[in-house]
Amino acid sequence: MKDLKIKRIYETPTPNDGVRIFVDRLWARGVTKARAHLDLWDKNIAPSTELRKWFNHEPEKFEEFNKCYQKELDSKPEEIQKILNLLKEHNVTLVYAAKSPTINHAVVLKNYILMQAML
Question: pLDDT digits over 10-24, tens only?
């Protein structure tokens, strides 16, 4: 398995990013699609609108958000498998727009994918 990373969409893409997948449901403000250098935009793997609005990137809600988002991911095995298949041959970078590098859905998604890879 190759490397799985996360990166803000506002950071400069690098060749080591491999396949860049934007994992937000909404497009990031102030970034053109050309500047983002994305290979895929997977809106379906993003948290539901309801969960995203409830969480609102509030640190005190992150633990509960993590549990709820993992439950949502349990119902999306085909989306997870697409990423696992890419990881067999490519580095993959999950690209997100949230401000916090540690309290966001891409962190949860990365950990979830890595756990699935171990099964």
Answer: 999 999 999 999 999
- Distance (Å, whole) CA 99 – CA 32: 18
Chain length of the chain:
119
Closest among 110, 93, 88 to 19, alpha carbons compared: 93
- 70-90 per-position pLDDT tens digit: 999 999 999 999 999 999 999
Q: Rounded CA gap, 65 and 51, in Å?
A: 7
Nearest Cα to 9, choosing from 58, 46, 55? 46
Q: How far apart are CA 37 and CA 108, in angstroms?
A: 23
Kindly report the pTM of this predicted structure: 0.96
Alpha-carbon torsion 72, 75, 79, 83, what sign?
A: positive
The residue range of the domain holding 8 is 4-118
Predicted local confidence at residue 119, as pLDDT: 84
> How many domains are there within the chain?
1
Between CA 117 and CA 51 the distance in angstroms is 25
